[in-house]
Design brief:
mainly alpha; 2 strands; membrane; transmembrane; transport
Amino acid sequence: MNWMNSEAFTLFGQHIIWSDMTGNILGLITLALGWRRSLWTWPVQFLSGLVLFAAFYGHLTGSAGKQVVVMAVALYGWWQWQRTKDRAGDGHITPRFATWRERAAMLAAAAAGTVAVALLFTAYPKLSWDPWPDAYIFVGTVVAMYAQAKGMVEFWIAWLLVDAVGVPLNFANGYAFSGFVYVIYGALVLWGMRDWWLRSRRGPQPALEGAPA
């Protein structure tokens, strides 16, 4: 798979490598399928992680390890959507807003996870080129995927927060194609969030925790 780490072409003076381009195109397709609430979003996400794992394995151990986590969450997302896809009349999941308890839990997990992963990256510099931003993006991606698996509208907000750091970080570290794709991610996220937001208002709302039936 060494060819995947070779240069595909040059764009605006930036060197685009095959693995960066392929993995992120699949990631873009994943986000578009997520917008449509298609079950196919998870197999494509898994394939994206598999492509990047193959490209990084034996070369960038930390990056390869992160893709294993992404693939595991993709399998969980597929299982979760497979169980709940019949909630909506169109055969797809019905988006909903997270409860305040769920939001607090995700924020706490994101904060604790970012600190833990950043400390790991700092202790083993070969795992990451920039420990804290890289940890933030990695943990934020996992949290966003988890929220998506649960059908929460907030997953789009999590992606926006990841994009805010991902775009400048990728450009700064020479991953130009990732940077360009993250910009497109931002546009898709805004449209997707609007669609899920409206659908959550039309669909049945989950009961508040502790409220009487």
